[in-house]
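Meet today's protein:

…
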Amino acid sequence: MPSPTTALTLIEDALGLTNSVGQDQTLTNDEVSDCLRVFNDVLENWSTQKLAVYGQANQTFNTVANQATYTIGVGGNWNTVRPVRISEPSYATVSGVTFPYYSIDQAEYNLISYKTQAGGGTDPDQCYLYVNEYPLGLITLWPVPNAIIPITWSIDRILTAVTNAATSISFPPGYAKGFKYELGVELPSVFGKRISNYPEIIATRNRVIGDIKRANMVPSVLQYDTALLNTPSNGYPDYP
């Protein structure tokens, strides 16, 4: 199915896979509303799966001098869609030169002894802690910026909810079929059908979603701990 399409077309095609409604039957407004709610549940669920979303978008926000923690999301210090996750490395830009920020988890942040240490965005060991809070996420920077510094974050896309079933929607190749078969599994229960009677639909759904995730996969870059690269005169790596 080519993109763009509409949510209603995807819903009708998905219902046709299991004959959940008759070919000459027109969905009522309430039925369309119920199906659209399920479709939006699918979009929200796929947004939590890193390989189900198509790439990241760089977004740049400015720090505030001497402020360590920032809310991110609609209405937050950094006003955007709340990220499910942030990919690394992110980077600060100072005098036209970029300096990386690396992510750490809560346990690593807790081990930082001097959490109020100030920095100008060019420190070699800059890091950030992202807490996936709701309704606003929290980003804590270390060292604490001592000036206004633009930081660029690589944020995974969020699949936007559809508010009107007749509105045209566009996705990359493969997504329309993925949604069709995902809805083919999800929607029959709305009409009292059992998808377990249609194993071929489940198998096709799994294959198509697998194709989408393979297309979205980005090769990992091998990294080394710096200690492994520090070889003393005895010829052996300087292990801790």
